[in-house]
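Hi all, long-time lurker, first post. I run a small reading group and we've been trying to get comfortable going from sequence to structure in the token notation. Rather than ask abstract questions, I figured I'd post a concrete chain and ask someone more experienced to write out its structure so we can walk through it together at our next meeting. Sequence below, copied exactly:
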Amino acid sequence: MMQFQKYLIPIASVAGVAAAYRAYGWAGVAIAVGALVMWLLLHFTRMMTVLQRAAKRPVGFVDSAVMLNAKLRPGVTLLHIVAMTRALGELRSEKDVQPEIYRWTDGTQSHVTCELVGGKLKSWTLERPAPAP
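-- Answer (accepted) --
Happy to help. Here is the structure in token form:
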């Protein structure tokens, strides 16, 4: 599935530009390329906004680990998790080694550990500290 998604957008983009040329000539190409550039700029702006918010918070901190655990779904990207937590995760694995393991901890020392393969969430665990007697 990952390989399919990697090639789908470029192939669809080229096909869209070709169809625009065939239907409207060079004016269609200009509109299609303009739409692609706008789409890329929207994604770039979203990514920069998420990273600016994350830069203002401590690494690996989340307001509530329990709420993060409830919101996570398999296949979610790391950028989406960073957007939810508004913080970069604490890297727990070797750098540039698959799977990547990140941890987010809240004020009660509960933490969510996420395992990402290829930038997408594969599994996660919530760990809560034992209650004091």
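A couple of things your group might point at:
Residues 58-127 form a domain with the Beta-lactamase Inhibitory Protein; Chain:B, domain 1 fold (CATH 3.30.1450.10).
The chain has two domains: 2-54, 58-127.
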